Amino acid sequence: MADKKAQLIIEGAAPIDLPVYSGTMGPDVVDVRGLTAEGVFTFDPGFMATSSCESKITYIDGEKGVLLHRGYPIDQLAEKADFLETCFLLLKGELPTDEEKAKFDSTIKNHTMVHEQLKTFFNGFRRDAHPMAIMCGVVGALSAFYHDSLDINDANHREISAIRLIAKMPTLAAMVYKYSMGQPMMYPRNELSYSENFLHMMFNTPCEEKPISPVLAKAMDRIFVLHADHEQNASTSTVRLAGSSGANPFACIAAGIAALWGPAHGGANEAVLRMLDEIGDVSNIEKFVAKAKDKDDPFKLMGFGHRVYKNFDPRAKVMKETCDEVLAELGINDPQLELAMKLEEIARNDPYFKERNLYPNVDFYSGIILKAIGIPTEMFTVIFATGRTPGWIAHWNEMISGPYKIGRPRQLYTGPTQRDYPSK
Ligand code: SDX
């Protein structure tokens, strides 16, 4: 039911009445679906002002730097909830009771192994393949193993697919890393927590299973929480679009992984570390800031700016606090952190960045923590994909469990008008 009305007046045509809806938070939306019948499309490349769906999962206020998951602020979740609790919240809409949490943890733990045959998929890749290339392949391949849970119209199949994806992403991520190292892949261990298990599979070997540092496990878990969901970003919109055709959830998540890979999106965390390496020293910062401001130079300050946040990304604040905690607890004095802080200070005081409301985003500090944990740079976006899986799945499930239509945008055509093939 429309809350208000809008009227579109196009010269030479009758006014078109359009319904306007209000959400519980955020801007009103104008329902433009009726325009097609009037022979008119909207035009919004990059979807700067387009709502693709109605959702109850995550709310972002870009002006105020607010991020809520099912109404809970991200800084409170990062401090008080663990990653699996956040997964439950995103999927179910409410925080779990102690009993529900224990059951969910146990269910996830019992799905962390992957089919032994999946190991053979890795042999087709070069050892130096980019980890995201392998993740795109092996996650999509999961659909070849789970014919028992691919009926997207069956709520139980959707539930088991969600569990399998959340449970297996860390296992696959660690397998990708071990493959690149030429080391044996490690099996998950059920006595470990989700993030302890991931670090175990990443860094232990059959020769020696060292105890997992609680500091590193907590930092890893918080990084997963901070990446868990972010409304209709490029990769989540990709998952929704793939899902709207009826594709199975594993294929949809593989599509999301592919979209996340780009340096303008989830690939930015890897790009930040490479950028800091390239800058090298505080004395070079001014030169790189000038490059970022130069319209003729494609260089952008990685980890800065955001489509929605025109204030500090609330995740970046928590990430920076976690960065300080982890480096202090580990006694690491990372010159790249010093460089990043100086870069942030200079950029944020520069009129170009201030006028455009360009602030550090979630990717600016995450790489420094990941490096401190021992994660290699090329694995950073795989970590992002692992953390984002519950968000992708929650949005996919929200769409599929309600009425939806196949996503099929239109266009402004400016190509040649109809012409005949020349007679020979
Ligand atoms: C993520 O959408 C999400 O929610 C994504 C994400 C999630 O959790 O899913 O938050 C994760 O992707 C974070 C963003 C990571 N990407 C980067 O850090 C790459 C660097 N950032 C830029 O590429 C850029 O800021 C984007 C892609 C993030 C946002 O681009 P927009 O919204 O399309 O903004 P824009 O390109 O139109 O920029 C507006 C102006 C432009 O200058 P003018 O044309 O107005 O003169 O700001 C400039 C841009 O050139 N600008 C930058 C800049 N970011 C924007 N200039 C220099 N360095 C930058 N980083």
From TrEMBL:
Does the UniProt entry include the keyword Transferase?
Answer: yes
Query: Which reaction is the catalytic activity of this chain?
Result: oxaloacetate + acetyl-CoA + H2O = citrate + CoA + H(+)
Q: Name one GO molecular function term.
A: citrate synthase activity
Pfam families (alphabetical): Citrate_synt
Which PROSITE patterns does the UniProt record give? CITRATE_SYNTHASE
Cited InterPro entries: Citrate_synth-like_lrg_a-sub, Citrate_synth-like_sm_a-sub, Citrate_synthase, Citrate_synthase_AS, Citrate_synthase_bac-typ, Citrate_synthase_sf, Citrate_synthase_typ-I
**Which SUPFAM superfamilies does the record match to this protein?**
Citrate synthase
Query: What keywords appear on the UniProt entry?
Result: Acyltransferase, Transferase, Tricarboxylic acid cycle
Pathway per the UniProt entry: Carbohydrate metabolism; tricarboxylic acid cycle; isocitrate from oxaloacetate: step 1/2
Name the PANTHER family on file: CITRATE SYNTHASE
As for family, the record states: Belongs to the citrate synthase family.
Tell me what this protein is called: Citrate synthase
Q: Which organism is it from?
A: Pseudomonas neustonica
**Classification of source organism:** Bacteria, Pseudomonadati, Pseudomonadota, Gammaproteobacteria, Pseudomonadales
